[in-house]
Write a structure and sequence with these properties.
This protein is mostly beta strands and 123 residues long. Helices cover 0% and strands 51% of the residues. The chain is built from no helices and eleven strands. The strands form two sheets. Strands 2, 4, 5, 6, 9, 10 and 11 form a seven-stranded mixed beta sheet that branches. It has a four-stranded antiparallel beta sheet with strand order 1-3-8-7, with no helix packed on it.
């Protein structure tokens, strides 16, 4: 079965960095667009960033543009999220997801989801 497993979350001070990873199995990874979403307590799930199946095209939410970078290694079935200049408002559970669309910000268009990893940014 398809599995997406995130790792790399943790506690970091404001201004710090974290790198999240999402390892995929059970699917032909190189044919899926991948995305990262986040959900803070009491808030709706929010699109963060997405990357095309080839890695040649990316898309970011305005709130993270210039601070976060998505990338992927199809040979390793892994997608990454490099997060720099973190702010307390970035605190959330971050989940990766796979979609048949090339890159997409609509969560309903994603077929598979990971369990998520907690990112906490202290002020």
């Amino acid at each position: 079965q398809v599995q997406l497993v995130e790792s790399g979350g943790g506690l970091v001070q404001a201004g710090g960095s974290l790198r999240l990873s999402c390892a995929a199995s059970g699917l032909t990874f190189s044919t899926y667009g991948m995305g990262w979403f986040r959900q803070a307590p009491g808030k709706v799930r929010e699109f963060v960033t997405a990357i095309s199946w080839s890695g040649g095209s990316t898309y970011y939410a305005d709130s993270v543009k210039g601070r976060f970078t998505i990338s992927r290694e199809n040979a390793k079935n892994t997608v990454y999220l490099q997060m720099n200049s973190l702010k307390p408002e970035d605190t959330a559970v971050y989940s990766c997801a796979a979609t048949h669309y090339d890159k997409c910000e609509v969560p309903e268009y994603y077929s598979y989801w990971g369990q998520g990893t907690q990112v906490t940014v202290s002020s």
